[in-house]
Amino acid sequence: MNHKIYRIPGMGADKRLYSEIEPIVGYEFVDLEWRLNYKNIKTLKDYALELSKEIDTSQAFSLMGVSMGGMVCSELADILNPEKIVIISSAKTSKELPAHFKRLKFLGITRLLNQEKIRYVLGNSSRFFGAMNNEQRKLFYEMAESVNLDFIAWSIKAILNWNKKKSSPKIIHIHGTRDFVLPFSSVNPSIIIEKGDHMMIWNKSAIINKKLKEIFI
Length: 217
Description:
- The chain is α/β, with parallel strands linked by helices.
- It has a single domain, classed as Alpha/Beta hydrolase fold, catalytic domain (Rossmann fold, 3-Layer(aba) Sandwich), CATH 3.40.50.1820.
- 38% of the residues lie in helices and 14% in strands.
- The chain is globular, with a radius of gyration of 16 Å.
- The two termini are 16 Å apart.
């Protein structure tokens, strides 16, 4: 039986975010979609607790997450006992969030969010996230169009209010030096990808695939 790697996408994304990731011999990818029963859940930790119910812990498993998905993986690491945890373009703790996130929280930016503003930002943000070819940019906007906007508003608030000071030593953190969403200067990664941006899971998939195979094989 193959070892399962549960994958969590980034905020506003789905399993298509992993479209450039190659299979790993001996492993099976299981993609966890964002659950929408978030209205009674206030924190990323509580969200991770709910998501943990979808993971089969009767056999060895690992976790993988991109961006916000990596933050949830960091919380899951405290709840479950995964064999390996890989986070990409993400943060292990709230201390790795950039200073401007804290300023946005102080300014109460979440009170200003509405569906119109979120839709506008999503529809004009691909270049901020990183380099993409035409096919990837099309996919980016397809995911943005299909996203639940209330969930995006919840996610932003949850990240801005995230309070996690320590992380599991099992976490292998892959991060790029040109990530403008979660700046390289704010994080302490295990593996550094030179000139990698927030979308390096697509635009630097060759090196990401190589690193993943080195980690898991």
